Amino acid sequence: MNDRDYIYEKLSDFLGGTFHQAMETQEKALHEFIEEAHKICIENTINYITAFLNSNLSTEKKEEFIEYYTDIYFPALKLAPLEWLEQTGETLKQALKNT
Question: What's the pLDDT at 78?
């Protein structure tokens, strides 16, 4: 498995494991992840998000990936999937600063 595939796998694990059908809201799901995850796990997740956002995939493919691995209705958030993922990364970075 190459680095790119590893990053996509880890990011899909984070998205699917956090933003799934059983979540109450995506905000609460992210808060629970921050509360329960070890600092190293949050740092790694930030790195996976950053690598994914900077990857050579087209915007369309990136958004399809995010939509596929989350149970989020993005029009209700008034955000595109990429915007949401960027905000999620920023929220995780802020959480690290507060620990």
Answer: 95
Give the three-state DSSP class for 74: helix
CA–centroid distance for 95 within its chain: 14
Amino acid 1: pLDDT: 67
On whether the pTM is more than 0.90, the answer is yes
Residue range(s) defining the domain that contains residue 44: 3-97
Which backbone phi and psi does 25 adopt, to 5 degrees?
Answer: -140, 160
pLDDT tens-place string over residues 22-57: 888 999 999 999 999 999 999 999 999 999 999 999
> How far is residue 33 from each of residues 40, 41, 44, 88, measured CA to CA in Å?
13, 10, 13, 11
Task: Supply the angle between the helices 3-18 and 26-36 in degrees, to the nearest 10.
Answer: 110
Q: How many domains does the chain have?
A: 1
Six-digit token string for 68: 């596929």
Q: How far apart are CA 21 and CA 64, in angstroms?
A: 18
Torsional sign, CA 30, 36, 42, 44: negative
